[in-house]
Design brief:
mainly alpha, binds zinc ion, two-stranded antiparallel sheet, 57% helix
Length: 150
Amino acid sequence: MARLLDSLAEVGCRKLGCKSSASLARHHKGHQAMWLGPWTRQLDIPRYANFVRRYQEFRDEDVVMLCTLHHAEIHHIYDSIIAKHKESLGGRRLYRYTWSQAHELMKLLEAECDVWLGTVTLGYSPTKLDLDRVTKKRRENKLKRRLKKR
Ligand SMILES: [Zn+2]
Ligand SMILES: [Zn+2]
């Protein structure tokens, strides 16, 4: 296993033109990990068990090697695609998604990733991505509290 990881690291970030020496991460193009939380309670459903198993296999067709800067950038892009998709379903929460809605969203993310991989961009700060998410959560909670008061 260590040998396999070594050879993967030699390949480097797959993003076009990237010369970053930042550390690498295996990125699931469909952001499959976002379904691991909301659906945990459905672990007994064979379809879900298969989904988790496949995620853990890190198959070549599912993952791509990215440096931390480009990994943060694609997730920054994903965040807005996911937000738009939830909105298009009337503000649906991920745990309320059906399988077909989840697959539709994963396909969108994968397609976006494939196009993005072929373009040259600078990447995004992982710290800033975390901050963006904290700010967004705060804003959402504030809105929720305001709605509750009514
Ligand atoms: Zn990722
Ligand atoms: Zn990179």
